[in-house]
Amino acid sequence: MAVQKFTGTGVAVTTPFNPDQSVDHDSLKKHIQFLVDNGIDYLVVLGTTGESVTLNGEEQRAAVNTVLKANDGQLPVVLGLGGNNTAAVLEKMKHFDFQGIDAILSVAPYYNKPSQKGLYQHFKTIAENTPVPVILYNVPGRTGVNIAPETIVSLAHDFDNIIAVKEASGSLTQAMHIIDHKPEDFVVVSGEDNITLPLMSIGVSGVISVAANAFPHEWSTMVNDALKNDFSSARQVHYQMMPIVEKLFAEGNPPGIKCALNIKGIIPNRLRLPLVPVSQELEEELKERISNMKKT
């Protein structure tokens, strides 16, 4: 079941805001419908791209409810739920309504830099208390700590409800070590848009993508072609998208993807501090590249 649900293209959904900085639920509904209509396989809410760290508990619950209603059971939904205080994660888990949630995406504890033993014990505790399956999220560029392949593999073997990892270390070698030693039904998912295709060539089963927010059809096409071992077709999309993806991350995430979504008329280009919109120069470059895509 895990392989079926979380193979393919997941999208780390953005959170749109109104001019008064409140959550723009109408734009969020529109965004979800756009993603569903363009072939993605599952939704990931309240992740990094969703600016979850700047949403209070009430806003988070309301955003999840909007996504669930807009999705209406069409696609699996993954909830971002993690942190660097294990007890606080358990407390939030205890009081969260998981109806309609298929799994949680739980990031490695950040800032306090636990050892590999500490990381294992953190995720062990989560696995023993969660009502839904767990997808580990390894993103050392943001957290300051790398979940070693040995730790990921140990967790995968020791806990049946730890079903996948979003691997965003940027290391193909690390991904290969995980793939080589993981349980058969454990899913390895790319967390880096521009190396998704290379990762899929070595056995990764898909991606949780930022770029697919604005380009769901293109991303789903590339991933589906790769899953069918049609790497010739997948490469065409990869090289078409690569320059755009580089621009999307040039001034951080989610400022770049929110700019692209705004250019495409899907959500407004607003963020919460400390994030700010991309520069005018980068916005013009994105407009040009998106315009050129439409002509091809």
Can you walk through the features of this model?
It is a single chain. The protein contains 13 helices and 8 strands. The chain has 296 residues and is α/β, with parallel strands linked by helices. Strands 7-6-5-4-3-2-1-8 form an 8-stranded parallel beta sheet.
The CATH superfamily is Aldolase class I
How is the largest sheet built, in terms of strand order? 7-6-5-4-3-2-1-8
Summed up, the helix count is: 13
Write down the CATH class: Alpha Beta
Q: What count of domains describes the coordinates?
A: 1
Helix-strand pattern = HEHEHEHEHEHHEHEHEHHHH
* Most strands sheet: 8 strands, parallel
CATH architecture: Alpha-Beta Barrel
Helix content: 40-55%
User: Quick check: average pLDDT?
Assistant: 96
CATH third-tier fold name: TIM Barrel
Approximate shape: globular
Radius of gyration: 18 Å
N-C termini distance: 38 Å
How large a portion of the residues is in β-strands, by DSSP E?
Answer: 5-15%
Q: Based on helices, strands and strand pairing, what is the structural class?
A: alpha/beta
- What ranges have pLDDT less than 50 throughout 5 or more consecutive residues? none
List keywords for this structure.
8 strands; 296 residues; 12% strand; eight-stranded parallel β-sheet; alpha/beta; globular; TIM Barrel; 47% helix
Summary of the model, kept short:
This protein has 296 residues and is α/β, with parallel strands linked by helices.
What does the secondary structure layout of this molecule look like, with pairings?
Blueprint: H1 2-5, E1 8-12, H2 25-37, E2 42-45, H3 57-71, E3 77-80, H4 86-95, E4 103-107, H5 116-127, E5 134-138, H6 140-143, H7 149-158, E6 162-167, H8 172-181, E7 187-190, H9 196-201, E8 206-209, H10 216-227, H11 231-248, H12 255-263, H13 280-295
Parallel strand pairs: 1-2, 1-8, 2-3, 3-4, 4-5, 5-6, 6-7
Helix pairs in contact: 2-3, 5-7, 7-8, 10-11, 11-13, 12-13
